Amino acid sequence: MDAAANENEVRLRRGTTLNERLVLAGIAVVVCLIALPGLAHLANDQWLGIAALFALLFGGLLLVAALFDRNVVWIVTPGEILIGEQRPFGKLHRRSIRNDELSEMRLRRSLGKSVEFTLIFETGSGDTLTSPPLPDITQVKRTTVQIARLLQLPAPELAENPLDAANAAIRLGKPVSVRRLWAFRALTGVLVCSVVLPPAFALWSGKLSGLGIAIWSFGAIVAFLLTRYLYRASGCWIVRDGGIRMERLSLTGAIDIIVAGSDDVAHIDVESGGRRGSHYALAARLHSGRKVRSPVLVGKEQTRAVQAEITRRLRLPQPGAR
User: Fold this and answer.
1) CA-CA distance, 240 to 315, in Å (whole number)?
2) How much is the pLDDT for 51?
3) Which tens digits make up the pLDDT trace of 71-99?
4) Helix (H, G, I), strand (E, B) or coil at 130
5) Architecture of domain 234-313
6) 140 near 155, Cβ under 8 Å?
7) Quick one: DSSP state of residue 116?
8) Which of 111, 180, 196, 213 has its CA 20 to 30 A from that of 159?
9) CATH code at 2-14+72-162
10) Which residues touch 175 (CB under 8 Å, ≥6 apart)?
């Protein structure tokens, strides 16, 4: 963890690596190349030309984001914040903020599904500074207190962080409630009816065609994937020293609860979250051969930090030590 590497310095970063920029730029170029031939249909007001125009605009926005997104680094040292900002083809802009210029420090939790924390600073001149995300989601309290000590400011009120290592138990996801259980069952029923009833009616009336079978097959696949996604996305892990409780919705619409001790878990792995490149999940592999996936986490470094904290609590070999 960067914050713990030096007690007299904390580094906070926001931006994308060169490899991430190259991948994004490559996707943008491919999208633009695919869209260019379709522009020939624009003069005839055909829908293909309009779609190609929107695809070209989308590719252009991706390319701009890859080329001009800023990288920001904050270095917090005793009595001072050093801020550096740079674009890929621009100069490095440096700024220094002394602690006597700061009047207030607050901790803010992101509003999205991902758990992310940033620091908000108010200056004497009325400006508001927002830091890059804190580097380790499991050490938010420790990092915040350390920064407040370095800048000689009162420690801010801590926001709720279910993944902080200072908690007696860390929690991934939300417990499965009865309300969510009934909602899952109702949605499953709607999906089953929408998939089964139309082809059954078409078959009964003698109007079932090849196109209808194809559409029904596609709908069945979508319904299955949606149901499986809801099943995998639901659930909660509660990890205490020496034990873990995992609960989630089963495919039958019941609550599946697994309680395992340190001796029951072989290891904890990081896997793709399956939706976006930045989404990941933890997979607990039990000695019984069963594998249980956690709710989705955002960010590979954040996920690895949670993985390290869980393996520490379960007294398992740390990742890379096997």
Assistant:
1) 11
2) 74
3) 888 999 999 999 988 777 667 788 899 99
4) strand
5) Roll (2.30)
6) no
7) -
8) 180
9) 2.30.29.30
10) 236, 247
